[in-house]
């Protein structure tokens, strides 16, 4: 496998991102909010896309389910257009350096600082002190290690990860201030609101895997997708206009439509002038299926050949491990650990 560099030989800035293997299928919000961006960015950046299985065990999960979802998540990266010849696709637990750097960074993170992470506060309140664990508490430090190991310049994430990115930057700066310039301070790349996809049944809430009735899960049967779209909540009135406040349901359908079909929202409004919500929904079914059908077929092709998928993931890990090792060696030396024989 080629070392990572662009065709022209000029080094591209590095990018890192990841998703947790916590679902069987991405929904259209994950797809439009993350995967489509990942695919666009892989030309300009030397991209590393990770399936963060170590993050996924911060909540209880059956081992076989985790294994299946790890493959399913990787297969969907590839089906969505991540090109393993161009970008590295790998599984977090395959590169031991993630856990090793997490320890070093943990020793630089304040207890109160970690306790202020809003996602931790939300999740631990939901599960209660009994259901919560230390892994959930240190989750953002593992995420910082993911990013800092690869000298990533850019990290595309959703708005919900902004605070974790800020912690990552603070930890890199703190390390550098304490031990000398060592770690690259990454830039967040917060994916904008245009890709904000809401729940079809409750348009005031974000689309989420935990509310399947309002989610468009891409690997679902076409019949299910059709039903969810046709029964999406719309608003009073009959005109198809984009009005976030007065017509959040219709606005959401238009946003999904526009993102998948490429026509901008004013064009869609004009095209649907004088037509009803039913027409819009019927056409949206076709637009969604035009994306979901090949996506499902490609994903299934990978999942039906797990040996090939595992080979791609092993190649990805082989490609990124030397980068991670070099960073960790630098860090260990700075911290004052005695050099190990290798
Ligand atoms: N915490 C991220 C999420 O839930 C996933 C993640 C883990 C990640 N490590 C990362 C994202 C590093 C970007 C970079 O969405």
What brief labels describe this structure?
binds tryptophan, three-stranded parallel beta sheet, 5 strands, 342 residues, mainly alpha, 13 helices, two-stranded parallel ribbon
Describe it.
By secondary structure, the chain is mainly alpha-helical. Helix content is 54%, strand content 7%. The chain has 13 helices and five strands. The strands form two sheets. Strands 1-2-3 form a three-stranded parallel β-sheet. A two-stranded parallel ribbon has the order 4-5. β1 (14-19), α1 and β2 (46-51) form a beta-alpha-beta unit. α9 (222-230) runs antiparallel to α12 (277-303). It is globular. The mean pLDDT is 94. Tryptophan (TRP) binds next to β1, α7 and β4.
Helix-strand layout with pairing:
Blueprint: E1 14-19, H1 28-41, E2 46-51, H2 53-56, H3 63-79, E3 88-91, H4 97-106, H5 111-115, H6 118-131, H7 134-148, E4 154-157, H8 162-179, E5 187-190, H9 222-230, H10 248-261, H11 265-271, H12 277-303, H13 306-335
Parallel strand pairs: 1-2, 2-3, 4-5
Helix pairs in contact: 3-12, 4-7, 4-13, 7-8, 9-12, 10-12
The structure holds tryptophan (TRP).
